[in-house]
Amino acid sequence: NAGVTQTPKFQVLKTGQSMTLQCAQDMNHEYMSWYRQDPGMGLRLIHYSVGAGITDQGEVPNGYNVSRSTTEDFPLRLLSAAPSQTSVYFCASSETGTSYGYTFGSGTRLTVV
Amino acid sequence: LAKTTQPISMDSYEGQEVNITCSHNNIATNDYITWYQQFPSQGPRFIIQGYKTKVTNEVASLFIPADRKSSTLSLPRVSLSDTAVYYCLSGGYKLSFGAGTTVTVRA
Q: Cβ separation of A102 and B46 shorter than 8 Å?
């Protein structure tokens, strides 16, 4: 049981480049979310999904796109990377959608230069 | 997003009990209070959840008064490995983590 798998673990981008952060879960969870964590700060919600085909914005959605074509996958796309997007990105999934029992991935550390 | 307030940091020594109090004045009637733990370079990990009164598991206890406007996470007999950031949350699937409480345990 792999849980929540994020790839890549590390990435360096140049300003203006685009890329997709991958997130996959094998627990058949309906709820999935993307967070970013800046140094010394808590996690901020970027986008979330309550099921395949359904996504919505969180606190800090600008500059990011998501889609949810399958239950398992929830990729996060950076459209045109900016230095302000340098952060650690976490993907999480939950069966119930309540604050209980979210499983987090190990994170992707992104640096935009 | 549901908002909570907790201390920025706490220091302790091995073997002591650590109590972290979280304020959630605007908690909704149906919301649970949940605590997560995060070690450096890792994602948060669920610790405990409660609705009212007291909940205890193998890791911690959670005390919630009748008015539910605050809660206290209690970590008994902490060790160096309990050094982490602890987050108090309320609400549903749109989790709001805040800055958390950095607990540092010293030998």
A: yes
Residue in B42, B49, B98 nearest the CB of A99: B49
A4 vs B contacts (CB less than 8 Å): 43
CA distances from A6 to B14, B64, B84, B85 (A): 34, 35, 22, 22
User: Is there a contact between A94 and B97 if contact means CB atoms under 8 Å apart?
Assistant: no
Selection from A42, A28, A104 nearest residue A73 by Cα: A28
Q: What is the pLDDT of residue B2?
A: 57
**B interface mutation test: which of A23, A89, A90, A99 has the most B CBs within 10 A?**
A99
Which distant-in-sequence residues (6+ apart) come within 8 Å of B23 by Cβ?
B4, B5, B6, B69, B70
pLDDT band at A99 (very low <50, low <70, confident <90, very high): low
CB-facing half-sphere around the CA of B24: CA atoms within 13 A: 32
Average pLDDT over residues A47-63: 94
Say which DSSP state A85 is in: G
Counting as low any pLDDT under 50, the low residues of chain B are none
The mean pLDDT value of chain A amounts to 93
